[in-house]
């Protein structure tokens, strides 16, 4: 992900073509739909977190059913997605949480990627504890008091330190630097993915156990497991410029869309539609909840949302 105006941890992520029959390595080849001469086709990058999947599901449904395009989706981690977009292996990223190095390289310098406007959703990463724990320990929401409670959060993985649970190592995170620079008696432990992190959070909540987790909004899980943010030192412009010295909270980030420049210029109605695609946090959470909690397929969730929100999406087609 999720995730945002800081530097992503290095990952050796590959590009994966999502099909009904398995996965094909996309690292060295373009999508079979990308750049197809004479065909109405679009290739969308889809990140691993469910909010990004909700964006793509609705965009794909409308492109296919209202504009007559063939749509391919390619699963890509955050930083490799920029490389794929620049090279034309994908046509669009619909939810970026801020990657200033890639933006400068590809948008400002090489001009192979074009800004496509805001998604309409503001993202925020933070540290969260379950609200039921806050009722027992109201001062636990101030980072200065976290060391007093570190023993509550010990796990087998964190040893004699409190556990700060993160998701995927590929997500943008300052957490190791924050723990070190704020001198906190905690160990960052990666669940491995958003899905694995959600499973752990649900299990902790079911048993009413304490947990401290890296989490983000918008996210449908807040409706199922109420959580309260821990106040870290206030974010100020430039406080996260040096990844090793970060000692401030994550910013609030308006999420942005990006298009391959050739696609932005020559992508016809599809490019115009994606530039206009803009919805609310509530819209995204509604679709995300259907996918992740109600277990609808992305296509079924998209259809259900489209059927009930015509006034919203018709503006994107005009």
Describe this structure in words.
This protein is an alpha/beta fold and 318 residues long. It is 34% helix and 23% strand. Strands 1, 2, 3, 4, 5, 6, 7, 8, 9, 10 and 11 form an eleven-stranded mixed beta sheet that branches. Helix 1 packs across helix 9, helix 1 packs across helix 10 and helix 9 crosses helix 10. The longest helix has 16 residues. The chain is globular. The two termini are 31 Å apart. The N terminus is likely disordered.
Using brief descriptors, characterize the structure shown:
318 residues; disordered N terminus; alpha/beta; eleven-stranded mixed β-sheet; single chain; globular; 11 helices; 23% strand
Topology:
Blueprint: E1 16-19, E2 22-25, E3 41-46, H1 50-65, E4 70-75, H2 78-87, E5 92-96, H3 100-109, E6 113-130, H4 131-136, E7 162-166, H5 175-181, E8 186-190, H6 194-206, E9 212-217, E10 227-230, E11 252-260, H7 261-266, H8 268-276, H9 281-292, H10 298-308, H11 310-317
Parallel strand pairs: 3-4, 3-5, 7-8, 7-9
Antiparallel strand pairs: 1-2, 1-4, 5-11, 6-9, 6-10, 6-11
Put simply, the count of helices is: 11
- Model regions low in confidence, pLDDT < 50 over at least 5 residues: 2-38
- What is the averaged pLDDT score? 89
**What class, by secondary structure content?**
alpha/beta
Short recap of the structure:
With 318 residues, this protein is an alpha/beta fold.
């Amino acid at each position: 992900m999720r995730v945002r105006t800081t530097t992503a941890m290095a990952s050796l992520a590959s590009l994966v073509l999502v099909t009904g029959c398995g996965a094909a390595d996309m690292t060295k080849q373009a999508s079979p739909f990308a750049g197809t001469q004479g065909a109405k086709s679009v290739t969308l990058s889809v990140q691993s977190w469910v909010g990004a999947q909700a964006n793509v599901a609705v965009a794909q449904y409308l492109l296919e059913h209202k504009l007559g395009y063939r749509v391919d989706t390619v699963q890509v981690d955050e930083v490799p997605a920029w490389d794929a977009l620049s090279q034309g292996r994908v046509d669009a990223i619909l939810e970026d949480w801020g990657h200033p190095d890639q933006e400068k390289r590809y948008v400002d310098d090489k001009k192979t990627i074009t800004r496509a406007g805001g998604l309409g959703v503001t993202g925020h990463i933070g540290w969260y504890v379950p609200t039921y724990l806050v009722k027992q320990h109201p001062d636990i929401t101030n980072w200065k008091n976290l060391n007093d409670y570190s023993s509550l959060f010990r796990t087998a993985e964190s040893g004699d330190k409190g556990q700060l649970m993160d998701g995927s190592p590929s997500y943008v995170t300052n957490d190791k630097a924050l723990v070190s620079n704020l001198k906190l008696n905690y160990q960052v432990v990666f669940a491995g993915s958003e899905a694995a992190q959600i499973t752990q959070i649900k299990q902790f909540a079911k048993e009413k156990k304490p947990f401290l987790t890296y989490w983000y909004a918008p996210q449908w899980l807040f409706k199922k497991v109420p959580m309260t943010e821990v106040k870290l030192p206030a974010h100020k412009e430039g406080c996260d410029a040096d990844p090793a010295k970060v000692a401030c909270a994550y910013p609030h980030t308006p999420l942005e869309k990006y298009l391959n420049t050739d696609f932005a210029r020559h992508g016809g109605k599809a490019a115009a539609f994606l530039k206009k695609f803009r919805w609310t946090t509530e819209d995204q959470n509604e679709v995300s909840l259907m996918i992740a909690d109600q277990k609808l397929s992305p296509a079924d969730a998209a259809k259900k949302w489209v059927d009930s929100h015509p006034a919203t999406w018709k503006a994107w087609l005009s």
